[in-house]
Amino acid sequence: MKIEELIDKYFEGETSCEEERSIRQFFSGKEIPEHLLTYKPMFAYFDKEITSEQTKKRFLSRKKTLLYTLSGIAACGIVAVAISVFFHTSGESSSEAGNYVMINGKCYTDEATIKAYANASFKEVATSKDEVFSELFND
Question: Which residues does residue 103 pair with via DSSP β-bridges, in sequence order?
């Protein structure tokens, strides 16, 4: 199809996007017939506007992605601070009361006594090497 026919079709509003793209490409070239030079500024302007519109869309898309990413990072930071504050304040109340262990219903705070009870408990459940081997290789 000749360019003159495409231009007529364009002004009648019957061109497709592909045909309009080919018109803009034609007028962005260097070899334009003299009788069509009057249309060159108009189609050059359209091409420039379409290109700048695409650039704006890409910029806004990147800006939106960056905004979502930074919002996610900020939300994670707020949650981390909230959790650390919560555990820090709850940790203070238990450290003010002191550390303790309940053994057979009694409360112990002495570290040496607690270690003695723990060692005694471990000895009750400990097994010797001979007992382990006899259980493993029992035929």
Answer: 106
